[in-house]
Predict the structure.
Amino acid sequence: MPHSAKPVAVKESRSDTRERLEQEILEAAKRLFAVRGFAGVSLDHIARDVGTAKQNLLYYFGSKEGLYRRVLHGVLDVWLSYMEAITHNADDPEMALRKYIAGKLRFSREHPFDSRVYANEVISGAPLFAQEIRDRVLPALQADIAVFNRWAEQGVCRPVDAAHLMVVLWASTQAYADFASQICLVLGKPQLEEQDFAAAETLLVDMVLKTVLSTAT
Amino acid sequence: MPHSAKPVAVKESRSDTRERLEQEILEAAKRLFAVRGFAGVSLDHIARDVGTAKQNLLYYFGSKEGLYRRVLHGVLDVWLSYMEAITHNADDPEMALRKYIAGKLRFSREHPFDSRVYANEVISGAPLFAQEIRDRVLPALQADIAVFNRWAEQGVCRPVDAAHLMVVLWASTQAYADFASQICLVLGKPQLEEQDFAAAETLLVDMVLKTVLSTAT
DNA sequence: GTCTATATTCAGATAGAC
DNA sequence: GTCTATCTGAATATAGAC
């Protein structure tokens, strides 16, 4: 590219490069934090993974904790984007539940590292994450629970303990990311395949619909 | 105690002291590893917690990894002791499932740190634990799955995907230990109480029995 | 068996040249 | 903005006195 290119274009190109490198760093950090936890990963570790020096990570993110917070923030963005099925289908319980389960399992399949970073943080008592969970996750969960309760009032579904049902759905679907290594051992295969997620979805949908929609009280 | 006490008694008393201190160290290490992970805890940390010096931990356990392995081994002992409900009630599906769910929830309630150490290790891909899981956990799980399949053959329960049902049970019950901090946020209380575990048990038993025992195919 | 002292490695973070 | 060099603290582990 000739040096006569417009300064604006050059500037954008440079900031694009920086943007891309930042994203690469965040992705690598996510993968490593997911497996070894915050304390188990060094900046050197991450830097080598993306082919740069740890000083650059500090230049970009200020500190290791700063980098980790950025990772957490991105994880939560992804996490929340898969959470909207229930409130977006509030007029059709069966559809809402089917889509919610399918979406959460897709999250586990497509973003296993995000799921594990989240799990690690929650297991630790969410020391850095608590406020963000309170501000962003809790409202989403409570909206879902409110929808369940409305369904029960309207008589379109059985009165269930919505909070605990959410725990079951949440734990069962995320297990296919967080505890994949053990599920693989049980299934006797090196890694989970599409059919395993399909089988999980069939079972979970069956269980939940039987519980929530059955006519018997 | 006079010095004329029998040497054997003295010896036993001393090894008892050592035994007790070792147990104290293992308990403290378990609590800390559960929350901060293997890399997130230093020997100093653990030593201060039990009121001794880190050199003693090294004297007792050889290395940090040695201590961690001992913790893992103990965790697995506890974990397995709560797993026997299904094979011990193989002639009564409803009883077996009720007892299994109740037992796993009791494990989460009574041994939350064991559960979290186990979870941390599995999320990391069980680098130190894989062999022991293969040798001790897998046979137990496969025995449970075999019982399910036998029930289906005998027609006393619906043909379910037993492996995935185990995942749901396992994940849902352990969530009440591993993800307690988030469940507390959702329930709006500082910590889980007996009634929360009771509500979880009611819902899970309801879901599983509806799925496994309902007459419709 | 327990304590003091220390060797050694490695981490996060900073300073300064370019 | 990126690199080399370095500071500082902390961690595992060992040696040796008592």
In short: Confidence is low (pLDDT under 50) at residues 1-10 of chain A. The CA atoms of residues 86 and 96 of chain A lie 5 Å apart. The domain at 71-212 of chain A is CATH 1.10.357.10 (Tetracycline Repressor; domain 2). Chain A is about 75% helix and 0% strand.
